[in-house]
Amino acid sequence: MDFYQVQVYKELVKWQGKMAKRPSLTGVLTKEVQMKVNNLYPEKFHQVMTAGIKKVVQGVLVGSEFISGAPAAADLTLQEREVLVREKIDFYKKTAAAEGAGTGAGGIFLGLADFPLLLSIKFKLLFDIALLYGFNVGELRERIYLLYIFQLAFSSEKRRVEVYQHLLHWDEWVKKYPVTMDHVDWRTFQQEYRDYIDLAKMLQLMPGIGAVVGAVANYRLLDKLGETAMNCYRMRILPDN
Hints:
EcsC, EcsC family protein
């Protein structure tokens, strides 16, 4: 391992400690409140939300237009790859911020349009990061991996631990279980994601502050996703020692 890899490895170990940490009391209580709120919604609401998000995400994951080029050259060093990755993250953070400001300024109707648009931007970032780390996103298993990265970034503390274990033992896990879209728990996926971003998105719909809230929220969400993706791919490419 060169000097850069050693520094990255230290960052990775610190990040892994956060991912494996047991849920805090605050996290547990927050999740319980969110579950009670979700139980107030009629079953039809959950069915519609689950079907809607499933359709959007599956459309993105199987859409060839989201693949921009081939995996990065195999002879690139980790440092060279991550310079390019950080540039991509910075670009998409600014793109998401501009999108959030535009839809937030438009009030409730444009604010609602932000949801699928932001999902598309997030997954486009994940596709580009995977390619820069040298992984072929033309393979279904690699696209499912992106889906788990997404869940790791935007889930409750309890769910985060479960998803992290899947990613930590990814190669062993995919050998045991079929890698298909049908095995994704879409209801849990949509509830966890919606609970994670609910407050910011509700504020984005408010007149006067919607544009500012939308820009800041989207910028931070893309930053969180980028950091999560970088560390997930570091787990796969750094030597175990």
